[in-house]
Amino acid sequence: MSTPAEIIAARVNGTYVAEEPKPVKKSKEPVSKENAFPVLGGRQSSPSAGGNTTLWGPGVNGNGNGNGQAKPAASVLKPRPSASSKSSFKNSSVQEAFSLDADDQLNVARAEFIKILTAIKTETKASIECTSSQYTKKRTFLITGAPDAVKLAKRLVIKKLTKPVVVNFAIPAKVRSRVIGAQGRTLKPIISEFQVKVDIANEEESPSPEPEDADDIFAKTVPVTIEGDAEGCKGAKAAILAIVKEETKNMSVKIAVSDFVKPFVAKAAEPVESKYSQLEFSFPAWDSPSTNVIISGDREAALEARDELKDLLASLEARLTVHSVPIPQVKHQFLPIKQIIEEDDVFIKLPEEGETDVKFIGEKKKIAAAQEKARQTTSQYKVDVLDMSKAHKGNLPHVRAVAALLRKNGYFRKIAAAQNVVITPPKFDFLADESNTSIPIEITVNAAEPDVASQTRKAIVATVNKFSPEKSKVIDDIDSFLVQEAPAILDISAPANKADYVVLGNRIVLFDVSETEESDDFDVDVSSADSLSEVNKSLDKLRAKQDSLSSTVLSVDSKKQNAIAGENKAVLKSLIAELPVNAVEVELHNDGTQSSENSIYIHGLKEYVEKIKDSINGLVRDFEEHGKKYTSSVELPAFVLPRIVGRGGSAIQALRREYDINIEQNEKTESVTDKSVKTTLHLVGQKRSVEAAKEILSKSAKKHADETVARVRVEQQYHKRIAGPRFVYMNRLQDKYSVTDFSSQKYDDTPSNKDEITIKGPSRGVAKAEEEIKELLNFEKENGHKESIKIPSKALARVIGKGGETIRDITEGFGVEYHFNRDKAAEEEQGYAEVEFTGSRTALKDTIKRVKEIIEEVENFVTITINVPAKYHRDLIGPSGSVMREIISKAGGEDVARQKYIHLLRVPDEGSGSEEVVSAGDKQIVEKVIEQVKKIVADKEASVVETVEVAKDRHGALIGTGGSVRHKLEEDYGVTISIPRASDSSTEIKLTGLPEKIEKLKEKIAEMTKDDWNEVVEVPSSLHSLVSEKAAIFKTFKSDYKVDVTHGNLTRKASKLTNGYIPAPPEGAVAEDGDDSAFKFTTALLEKPEGEDVVIPWRLQGEKDATAKVAEIVQERLEKAKAATHGGWFYLKDPKNKVPRLLGPQGRNIKEIRKNTGAFITVPRANDKHNGFVYVVGTEESLSAVEKALSQLV
């Protein structure tokens, strides 16, 4: 048989079918079910059931006893409207049934029970029916009525008829503040709705240990206790857990990665990123300081992705290897680090301090390709280093100052732009360091244009030479503390006297720059000494100030110094910041002369030295009393807190760093508008810092609390004039009255109106700014002026600009308004358009002047085109465009804006088929450009070609390193020089140019290529090695006769022959096994050389007598070599020990044998292929004599 709860549910759902009652056997079956319970809301029982009428109501149970108690059911049936068409409930009503267990019910008398239910019925207008079991004492209720009424009635029944319960559970500590909300705004509605008491412990009271995994939000929890009725506790708990679920469903986790792996993380993590596409991944760039991977999104997915990524990165790190490569530092700047990490997955790590090699990091199989790509890239550039220290006869202090001046005034940058190179001068710190004895200027050029480096060097040298020591003055009598104030004085006095200056460490160097500046007046004869003396006098005010300086040394324990100074010396900096700028300097762990652990050196103006001394002593006393745990609180209006905290906490973090303190808030406060709500901030740190920060917070709160908004009616046509040119008036008001905002934009509390200007800021400042705006508006209305100008039709487009950009820039810049009176028919007939400007007289004057300048540019603009044969196009451009730049410079176009400069001379691209050379721009400049082009073409057309015979080995003297000599000759003589390639046997050099210039160049070439040797001996290549004794004879000639030997074009071949190995010995030359002889000598007839025996010239350079003597020696040796008929191989069993014995001290033995026998003897080197043989060449008799002599030695 169905239980009462099942029957109730069935009746509510319209599916109940009555069962035939069965007799109860009271003596045999215990009552374990509520089968004797009548159905809630049932009608009268049938007569067969006994004819008794079932009475329902409070306090009535099956046996008439009203003492029953019930316990809340484990599950409560939800109300559901009946689907039966015969239901007695109206469509607007619902029913809900639930039970209360005996253990949870209050012990209420029947009368009180009826009274409670009656009161609930009256309050809720709901129908309540109740029954109770005489065995279980459980009470079951059926409530019928409107949905809201049923809900309220159920709450009241449970609240008034059940015992209070206590529910305990835990939530993550990190979401505690979100559950509570600002000022309890989230928790209070839950407490009110469910009529419960909720207690959430503080994080400090958490029983959880510190989590090992910082990303595990559930590792640290806080207990939650809810007191109230069962239903209320259940609802409150569900509401709190819903907030927790919402707050914890998403999370961000961090994975710390090492610098070693960081460059590869993003690419390596692609599989994980693809698998968890619903998550957001943030990877640190290889060149960023960040070392964390951040994963954001669903909590469970984020944690899974984190673990997978950690495993993947560990595997990656195990595969990475490091290859160190020595690369010159000057080429580090050209290494394509970004390109190689993206394309080859290899990271190039530049050496850190103390390191020398560049490191290639990546998987082993990828590193070789990356290294080759890096080599190819760096080889495209060449770095030339010019050491400035050699300038001005090695006057290093002066040259340092000149380098600093050139860097300060952008001279290096200008030279670099003119030559199309990169110039890297030393930094100021390097120049100020007197221990540096060189001043390297790095010039980076394209390797294909090496001559540009030479031109750049010349430009730098010429500029440096302009600043001689005689035109400079060194000032070193000003205290180092006051030197920092010198620039403010010198910035005024130096230009007035045509001087400039630099400050290097504690020295000031003045320069006379009168000859390097352009003048707009007649020269006045003023000597360098006089002008620099005037500048020097302007510094007398600093010299006078030196009398007011003082120094003192405090004795403070080293640890206390670090503590009171604060993190990054924040507290000490705040102390100094309270004094005037540059009033005092403080050095910790220093006594003014050297490092001293327990000393503090103070130097500066006397009065401020004493103040900072007292402040530091005060810090020490406070630290000894409170340490860094002094605590104070400040109460602030909650509505200003977001502004005090700043975006992302930036402002409050800055205050923490500045004063080295901790700032905490009782509860996190969301944005509020109620000005009566307060919040408290707690400050902990050193006493002085806490009190100073507290004062700043109070003032900031007062300032923000006083903020107000005002609106001033200003017609839109006056907005630009009120703002001023480039907003100068608006900016002045902001600075003058601390108005934080001044605009015509819309605020939440102000309606949008194009004829209004909104001012936002402190009330007093807003009032003052409003007053000035009104005064300015009245002035503009009374003094607004208009003026028109006629613009020729051909200049109209230039004046207006693309999309009106030009005319807007002009009018907004001068604070005027414009209006075009356009009439296309009239414009075509008259040839001009009219524009009207409105503004002040001064602004109108400036505006019209600028418009007229544009009109003048257009009217003077011309384009001239001439035909120039393509063969002369290169002559107009020159190496790296040098000729083109020179043409424009001579025409006066050097300072023309770049967008116009490029049109002053345009030469067709090679292979385009066009011969039109075009010049467009200012008429005067264009005419001069065309004039120069015509002259260059005329000179080329008048040119002739002549040839000059120059020995092949002298061609190098005309080419020079990287073609530098040839380019210099072409530049100096105006002649093109064509020299055959090294592989071409031709000795003819072609000269192209004007006849008179060619003649002068021929004289120069003859001078440069004349012979520089006295004697020459021709030695066949087959005998070269014998005659030279493998180059040993050359050293003898150099040391004994001061004679050098060269070989012209055959130098490389001669060197190769000189370094040749001992010929392979014949078979049987090696002693057989078992032969105990210490040596074996084998001879053979010399073979004649195969093919052509090339003759190698021995050119002898030196004194005439010496070269004649050496020539005789060479000739004598050559005759001996020609007379040689046999070669011999003297085999040594133990060459390592025997060869030194053969040589003797300094080769004395071998030299003696050579002299006595006339044979050529070659002693093997250790790295020779046949290093066990002494090779001998000579006649048969001389070889016998050598064998005898050598055998005696071994």
TrEMBL record:
The keyword RNA-binding applies. GO terms for molecular function: RNA binding. Residues 92-162, 163-245, 548-621, 628-702, 706-778, 783-856, 860-938, 942-1010, 1112-1194 form the K Homology domain. Residues 19-32 have a biased composition (Basic and acidic residues). It comes from the Eukaryota. Keywords: Repeat, RNA-binding. InterPro entries: KH_dom (IPR004087), KH_dom_type_1 (IPR004088), KH_dom_type_1_sf (IPR036612), KH_Vigilin_N (IPR057778). SUPFAM superfamilies: Eukaryotic type KH-domain (KH-domain type I) (SSF54791). Residues 43-55 have a biased composition (Polar residues). This is K Homology domain-containing protein.
